[in-house]
Amino acid sequence: MVERLPVALSAGLLAGVWVWGSDSFALSTWAGFLGCSAYSALGEHSIKGVLATWAATLSGVFWAWVVFFGTDLLGGAGSAVLTGLVTAAMCLQAAQRLLAFIPAAFIGCCVVFALNGDVASAWLPLMLGAVMGFGMSRLGDLFARMLPFTSAEESK
C-alpha cells in the first residue's frame, strides 16, 4: 500500500485543484476527469501521451458534432444512421497512429452527448484533463523520489 502513496498524493492534490479551478471558471468538472482518465488509460505518460489524448478525445468531440449537426438536417431517423456511421468512423480512424486509442474517441464523443451537444463546453475540460493526468504522473514521480520509503519504479 505504501508504494501507492506517491500516486495517491499527486492524484488527490491535483483532483482538488481541478475541482476548484473548474468551478471557478465554470468548466465541466466531470469532463475534465474523463480527459484525465483517457490520458491515464492510454499508458503513454509523456507529452506525446497528452497530444495523443487530445487528438483522440477531440476527434470524438468532432464526431459527436457531426451527429448533432446531421440530425438537425436529417431529422430523428438520421440520428440512428449517423450514430452508426460515426461509431464505425471512430474505429476506422484508429489506423492513424495519433488516433489509435479508440476509447478516448468514444470518451470525447460521449462527453458531447452528455452535454446535449454543447461542443463549446466539452473540448476545453477534456484538454485540461489530459494535462492534469500528465501533471499527476510527473508529480507522482517527484513524490516517489522524495519519500524515503518508496521508489519511482514501485509507484507506477
TrEMBL record:
Q: Which UniProt keywords apply?
A: Membrane, Transmembrane, Transmembrane helix
Q: Which domain of life is it from?
A: Bacteria
| One Pfam assignment | DUF1097
The keyword Transmembrane helix is assigned to this record:
yes
Which residue ranges does UniProt annotate as crossing the membrane?
A: 62-86, 98-116, 122-140
Keyword Transmembrane recorded: yes
Note the InterPro entries from the entry: DUF1097
Q: What is this protein called?
A: DUF1097 family protein
Species of origin reads: Shewanella jiangmenensis
